[in-house]
Design goal:
- 40% of the residues lie in helices and 23% in strands.
- A 7-stranded mixed beta sheet has the order 3-2-1-4-5-7-6, with helices on both faces.
- The longest helix is centred in the C-terminal third of the chain and has 22 residues.
- The relative contact order is 0.13.
- The N terminus is likely disordered.
């Protein structure tokens, strides 16, 4: 994953101008959200009957800057558990166990196991995306790679009947990945929340009711 432009260059770009004028960005700033991504999650939860129980255990993969973890912590309450993991350091979040590590590494797996304290996972979520290179095929394959890592993690940790929600892109490798996802979940849904920019290739895959693997 590579950064194709310096931060200063991005701030003078057309993208930055669109970002600064985006109504969801302005709303996030007004409401004190860490990012506009919070609205993507809340819309998905509220409009697609994805109920988060008060005592649920949820793992947020690639959680920086923490917007999703914050919204989920509000829903699970003190009896639930939200674990956020990312390579980047994060500011503390009340009610969230934060881990700075690669979730696919032995160190990350060990830290997650300790944070779970033996509890089964009800939901795995991921708003991860690759650093965009500008090469559409390269970016697509990186996205599918992240999706495959997320699915592998979900298969390891989800309880039977649990759910997974992840960002993805339409393109090379998507159809094969969706078929693979369908092997482990009874229901699959594609979701494009209103808070996602219309020009963005992103949408979300929701897998419901994890089928336990013998």
């Amino acid at each position: 994953m590579y950064n194709s432009k310096s931060k200063a260059a991005r701030k003078t770009s057309a993208w930055y101008q669109r970002h600064a004028n985006d109504p969801h960005v302005k709303r996030a700033q007004k409401e004190g959200k860490r990012s506009r991504a919070a609205f993507k999650l809340t819309e998905i939860l509220e409009q697609h009957q994805l109920q988060v129980k008060k005592n649920a255990v949820i793992v947020d993969l690639g959680c920086a800057p923490g917007s999703w973890s914050i919204e989920l912590a509000k829903r699970v309450g003190p009896e639930g558990k939200v674990i956020g993991i990312d390579l980047l350091p994060l500011k503390p979040i009340e009610g969230v166990s934060l881990i700075q590590a690669d979730f696919d590494s032995p160190e990350g797996q060990k830290a997650l196991e300790e944070a779970l304290e033996g509890r089964a996972v009800d939901m795995v979520v991921s708003d991860m995306a690759p650093e965009m290179s500008g090469d559409k095929l390269v970016d697509q394959m990186r996205m599918i790679g992240l999706n495959e890592m997320t699915l592998h993690f979900a298969r390891q940790y989800l309880r039977p009947g649990g759910d997974v929600l992840m960002k993805t892109f339409m393109g090379e490798g998507y159809d094969a990945f969706r078929r693979d996802l369908g092997l482990s979940f009874k229901k699959i849904k594609n979701i494009k929340p209103a808070a996602s920019r219309k020009t963005s290739p992103e949408f979300f895959l929701l897998g419901r009711e994890f089928k336990a693997i013998d």
